[in-house]
Specification:
CATH architecture: 3-Layer(aba) Sandwich
Strand order of the largest sheet: 3-2-1-4-5-8-7-6
Bound molecules: adenosine-5'-triphosphate
Strand content: 15-25%
Helix content: 25-40%
Number of helices: 9
Structural class: alpha/beta
Amino acid sequence: MASYANERARLNRLVGIFGGTFNPIHVGHLRAAEEVAESLGLAQVLFVPAADPPLKRDGEVALAPASDRYHWVEAATASNPCFEVSAAEQGRSGPSYLVDTLRLLREELTPAELVFILGQDAFAQLDAWRAPEALPTLAHFAVVTRPPGGGSLSDWLPPSLAASVEVDASGQLARHRTAGTWIRRVPISAFDVSATDIRLRLRDGRSIRYLVPEVTREPIEKCDAYKGQPT
Ligand code: ATP
């Protein structure tokens, strides 16, 4: 991340961290980041493409090269002055664990507070990630709704967090009992688009126009990784 962005992040308190495989980036990601930034008043959203996503290492999913996914995120976010892309996971060898990334970004961005942005589907699966109980002590969490949506934070709360966070009566906000961090449900416009669906369309030779930013469409269409099985 450029140093001016570090400086800007320091001057403002809340910085969004949007981690993902972005395999490939699509309009659902961009709209989620935009709406969280608007709704929580974030100074900046830092997209962090995973170089080697731990949960997608088994070869079951067609995975584009890390450098391609990174460049697509750069191209897709370039026109938004509030968006930046972090190479935090690019140079690191081995699986890209979020817990390591959040520790690193906390050091880099202090005194800004981090808000980790994720979909309700990912939040519900948090126990599959490394050190799940540590994650909401390192950053606030913005849990965005994703089709089919519905439910409250309690419905998606991963078991490992049940004892350490307290969900309020509205079901929209939870507080960590000791870390001073919060977890917020952030309702956003429903964009029923996923990277899985885009990879399926590419495999079948169908259009992905308007599902991905136009500036990235051709490079994504040409990516060899999406041409055969599996998706
Ligand atoms: P895949 O279909 O390959 O699992 P994905 O579309 O879920 O991919 P990821 O890069 O894995 O994309 O997602 C990064 C983050 O963005 C996750 O927290 C995910 O929940 C969230 N996200 C992805 N698509 C949407 C969407 N359409 N609406 C809201 N959140 C989304």
